[in-house]
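Folded chain entry —
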Amino acid sequence: MRNLNQLKFWNFGGMYYFYFMIWALIFAFLPFWLHKTAHLDTSVSGIVFSAMAITALILEPIYGIIQDKLGLKKYLFGFVVLCLLFIGPFVQFAFIPLLQINAIFGAVVGGAFLSLCLNGGVGVVEAYIERSTRENNYEYGHVRLFGSLAGGTAAFIGGIMFVRNPYSIFWACTVSAIILAVLLWALRVKNEDTGSQEVSKEHEENPVTKENIINVFKNRSFWGFCIMMIGIATMFDVFDQQFPNYFASFFDDTSRGELVFSRITSLQIFLEAGFMVLTPWFINKIGAKNGLILAGIILFVRILGSAFLTEIWMLSFWRILASIEMPLMLISIMKYITGVFDVRLSATVYMLGFNFAKQIGITIFSYVMGILYSAIGFQNSYIVLSLIVIVFVAIGALIMKSEKQQPDFNRNLVA
């Protein structure tokens, strides 16, 4: 039995590893591929990313409700994996011809397809594995660290692959998807084992209903959680969008700055994996809501520090500090959702409260910050951004209730 439990742990970890290997390779090298290989200008490339974001906004509510109705069944996860399998063939044989027929049409189709796998699909992957690991009594953070290791690996090998053959990145994604498919097929979660049918029986006796879903929106903590996610998750990504260019500007040779930044990022990702091991214990001590507030404070310090303390070594430190912030945010999100809301609706709350809110925030604030960067420069813009962060975090914290203030939703359904 112990060997079986260890095997399951590595199965979960492998699923995270190979999914986020795909994620990291695509998001790191798709912009270069669109520019250097597909020869798209920035406006058409922007349509690809906009299509990814818009498709995700459409998919998140649908994916969340379907996954909650499926419980621990793998069908939706399997659909995401099926889409992932076609990344290599799609980019190699279909994406370029579609762009040649009509650049805007090709960009929209390409972005929508990639969103099935990534922007939209990530919520399915995260929600399913979190639910499965919780069912098998594993700490989410201990399994999630494999995603961070995948990011570090992708950063290390992806550049070499892209220089040799730009299409190899996408075929590597297909190979990773094949391994992911095998791991998903081999996975046997606890309530599928003989003699462990309690959860599936409970799921059948208390199926997710329309009223359950509507009640999520009546819960003030849900709206506070959405505001908190805009303040932390959205602003984390918005800050990171242009920070590499800001960092490189402090070097006489910007290419040297880009190289140094890539090495710092790799270090940050591997440190992040280490903190993933320790953070669950810490969050269990302080509470998930406090973990989110602490993550917001660290982000505030990172952004404000980047505006005032601009020596290269200090800017490097601000980046490495993200290795603490990211585990705090990710693990607190999952623990807050399962501690405050009906656990049968964890996928819906995750995809709407986290992914959907985050995508809306990114759509708005990426545009706003782009204008500010041009109008008042990076440093002044970072001061404004840090204030936005602390305001959203404070408002979210005031609206959200702590886990101990909530009824036990595992036994009593949301009324």
Q: What stands out?
A: Residues 210-405 form a domain with the Growth Hormone; Chain: A; fold (CATH 1.20.1250.20). The chain has two domains: 2-205, 210-405. The two ends are 39 Å apart (CA to CA). DSSP finds 16 helices and no strands in the chain.
